[in-house]
Amino acid sequence: MNMIDSLLLKLAKLDEQSLTRHRRVVETPCAPRVVVGGRPLLAFCSNDYLGLAAHPRVVAALREGAELYGAGSGASHLISGHGLAHQLLEDRLAEFVGPHLESARALTFSTGYMANLAILTTLGMDADAEIFSEFLNHASLIDGARLARAQVKVYPHADLAALSALLEASTSANKLVVTDSVFSMDGNMAPLPELLALCERHDAWLVIDDAHGFGTIGANGRGALEHFNLRSPNLVYMGTLGKAAGVGGAFVAAHASVIELMIQRARPYIYTTAAPPALAHALLASLDIIGGDEGASRRAHLQALIAQLNGTLKLKRWQRIASQTAIQPIVIGSNEEALRIGAALYGKGIWVPAIRPPTVPVGTARLRVTLSAAHTQEEVAQLAAALNELEELR
Predict the structure, then answer these.
(1) Quick one: pLDDT band at residue 227, thresholds 50, 70, 90?
(2) Domain boundary assignment for the chain
(3) What's the whole-model pTM score?
(4) Is the dihedral of CA 86, 87, 89, 93 positive or negative?
(5) Which of 209, 220, 366 is nearest to 293 (CA)?
(6) Pairing of strands 39-43, 33-36
(7) What is the DSSP letter of 326?
(8) pLDDT for 95
(9) CATH architecture of 56-290
(10) Which fold does the domain 22-51+293-393 belong to in CATH?
(11) CB 3.0 to 4.6 Å from 81: which of 91, 150, 274, 363, for a disulfide?
(12) For the segment 291-319, what is each residue's pLDDT rounded down to a tens digit?
């Protein structure tokens, strides 16, 4: 068998297991109403939780940023690519989440994936370090742990007793507990106050991936740290800027010594061209919205939509995972049925992605509904009615 035949066999096996993924080309801005292949659709699949991706103020700021700073940065941050817009954004982010961190400083990245790789390979660079990773962590945290030199131990989902036993048994002087805040496929939240208490007791870092919490939870949109009123020098916080913030990129906020070490040693930061400064300029406008009255209003509307969906879904066979976040998963079970229901919704003009292994465990294929503050009550009612109808049809 030659190399190409080997690849074709692997692709055929994916297709047999209903695991083939397909891209759709969206022809319009990110919004609840999109056009795909010339067809209008009502979308419940983006992570644009506050509806800022096409917000006029953010779009105008992006345009202004391009006029001020051009289209690209031209180099890595440590050569000549670190522009004024990047610095202003990092200062603003440090100020934004600073009330929850000691001597806070922030560092921006092109993606959340890169940010998580940077955290774990920097803090876990020593062979005697230990990483304690939550079972449902995002792939970027899993991969970051694999790339680090540290030993990795996985604790069961939200199992504080199991984690406590692992920490008690550890003899490492450099311990990292790593967790998502809002789990991307279940929508539930990690027990962060209890995790932080364990970390402080055992002198460990608590690394929090708040990709799906930043901007959407907390009175001022400061994410899980504000939601749980956490404050500690043990915290290392990662927030993404392409979800609720509506633009792109990510940041890490922590004690200034953590950030300085990442600047000096984090390969995903050192060896990549800096993101276009126009994006950083646009994100300053996003932060103004998130932290202001409009952001509070959008978060309140999002919570109302979550309550509406929870109150109107009447499922008997499928399981809606309890979630008070914008992520509202509906577990179908088999890959085939999840794909069939997703296709049936698409036929009705509603776009909800079917999520299958290895993203979720085998036998738990699901529809991942994501709500946005840009959705209306009428649109959520349309989705609920379609789901209720399809479940009854078997």
Answers:
(1) very high
(2) 22-51+293-393, 56-290
(3) 0.95
(4) positive
(5) 220
(6) antiparallel
(7) S
(8) 97
(9) 3-Layer(aba) Sandwich (3.40)
(10) Aspartate Aminotransferase, domain 1 (3.90.1150)
(11) 274
(12) 999 999 999 999 999 999 999 999 999 99
